[in-house]
Write a structure and sequence with these properties.
This protein has 112 residues and is mainly α. The chain folds into two domains: 2-46; 62-111. The protein is built from five helices and no strands. It is elongated.
């Protein structure tokens, strides 16, 4: 009987200790959250009007805009794709027509 009471009291001590640990952890988390919220309150968030005043618009020369447009990877891809489709169309046209067909199309494809 004494052993049962001993186990019972030790298990209640363990439960009490776990509760105490949980409470300590909750207090620590609350303190950390309060510290974070205080730090955020101390920081001043810039207003939108202030940000707009800081932004300076840079105008590029016309030729630089053209160079940036055509040197972009997506522009290179679409130009390449477009000209490849045109080439395939002309090649298919030259193959479908007889060999003594349109000399202009044959010449364009030969130089391409």
């Amino acid at each position: 009987m004494k052993q049962i009471k001993k186990y019972a009291s030790s298990s209640s001590d363990i439960v009490n200790q776990d509760d105490q640990d949980d409470q300590d952890e909750e207090k620590m988390i609350r303190n950390e959250l309060m510290n974070i919220s205080n730090k955020l309150k101390e920081k001043k968030v810039p207003k939108l009007a202030d940000l707009k005043a800081e932004i300076q618009q840079v105008t590029l020369p016309f030729w630089e805009k053209i160079v940036l447009l055509w040197s972009a990877p997506i522009s290179k891809f679409w130009i390449n794709l477009t000209f490849y489709i045109i080439y395939l169309s002309l090649f298919a046209l030259a193959v479908l027509w007889p060999s003594c067909g349109n000399l202009y199309v044959d010449t364009v494809l030969w130089f391409w």
